[in-house]
Records
---
Amino acid sequence: MSRQHIEIQQSFNAPVETIFNILTDHESFGKVIATKIQRVVDSKEENKNGVGSVRRIFSFPVPAFEETVITFKPNSLMEYVVSKGSPIKNHNGRMEFSEKGGKTKLCYFIDFDPRLPFILLGTVLKSAIEKPIRQSLEKLSNHYAS
């Protein structure tokens, strides 16, 4: 199988708290990437989107799947794994946030293996995941451009 790696770096002319809250809130992240995302389990921590929270993603044409947050450090880091469903396995997502001079830098990493052992399938899935996320983050960045 061919492990796939996605790395997206995006800057925002906005404070880290603003961008972190938008991108780690399950429903607002869904709005950013124009995909229906529903929180199905709240975290027992202070932030309902924190460790242990589960979101269901409805992304046509694949069946709905779920992701579970495994690391949540406010204004700094969120990590998640696919915990149910999906045409991919061993999926890990990592959003790292930093701020300098009132501007936010996001480093977003996604690693996964396709469920089926076709090399081409991994490349197709990578593109299907990366392209809309990259475009959506650029659009959000443009929203905060001054």
Note: The chain has one domain: 4-143.
---
Amino acid sequence: MKAYRSIAALIVWFGLLLQYVLMVRGQSGEVFVTRTINFLSYFTILSNLLAAVAFSAPAVAPASPIGRVFAKPSVRTAIVLYTTVTAATYIVILQGLWDPQGLQWVADTTLHYVTPALFLIDWLLFTQKGALRWGSVLPWLAFPVAYGLYSLFRGPLSGFYPYPFLDTSHLGLAKVLVNMAAMSGFFLVLGLAFILIDRLLKRRRA
């Protein structure tokens, strides 16, 4: 388990660093700062950052406060939920909107495909099963809801919309709110599915 998580952590951190370099290279001053903020305004990046820490902390410092937090089944299930939604949203909605090449393809593939797969495998094989409750799904929704509200607030101020379905300048506020509600429903249903899988795996192993 430790070896798997250590290797996975290196892969995820590599993908994040590569994407960041590709976004800010050749920039300085205000543009550099803006692109850094934009980098951190993608749900893909935030979910990958959580995955990177969740792989790193229990492997490097399992007894530390952060190591103990990210070892909790509820926390790890929340992260597998976020990374799975990242992959599903990209595959269904976003991948047909552009054609990354070269290093951008490497970063794109790592962040949207490799990280979700690595974390799903980790969750299936190494995360303790049977500790989740149906109500666990509600706190998991706080992060995507907060992210949606942040995007609604920052988008009109900066002119930057990380995803087309959050672009109020083209879709209007009402349509974006409908999209956010639909995404929240997807998070809820998928979160409940992970809890069900958790219970089924617990029974099978028992």
Note: The chain has one domain: 2-205.
---
Amino acid sequence: MSSDKIKDVKAAGEEAVETARDEIDAVKAHLERLITKHVVPALTNAGGKAGNLTEEAVANVRELANHARNDISKQTRAQSPWVSIAISGVVGFILGRMSR
């Protein structure tokens, strides 16, 4: 190959590199604009919604725990006198047998 053809090929290669760099920079700038305008607000909105849902879930769990505690409390209060009488009777019987 002659030196002119080599220079032409080299110049074409450098021009292709510059064109590719310019296109990459343009795509990069476009991508940054898209992320700034669309992705960041969407993620912020999703984060806010997730926070609200978390607060609602915590409130629901607390409410369920309070209901369960109240139900158990009612059940134990209803059974408590009879259970304590039965336990006292059994303990008294055992102590009475042991004291003989």
Note: DSSP finds one helix and no strands in the chain.
---
Amino acid sequence: MNELLAIGIIRNALLTTLLAAAPMLIAATLVGIIVSILQAITQIREMTLTFVPKIVAVFLVTVIFFPWIMKLIGGFTEQLLAQLPALIR
């Protein structure tokens, strides 16, 4: 296995990880911003108010995007297994 092949595998793994995590991260960020704005407007400083909506949003986004995430990870796994003979040499 040469360096270019290893770098390609690592690059694809990182890209797959970022793409799989992106929907949840974006949802948590947007909900966090909205809750922060609402807390600033109402001057409510309850710590649990920031976590519960984020957890619910991340859960819902995970359920919605689960088929796409599994297809993405499955495609990466198939690609990695197809390259297995070249990796063994």
Note: The first helix runs from residue 3 to 42.
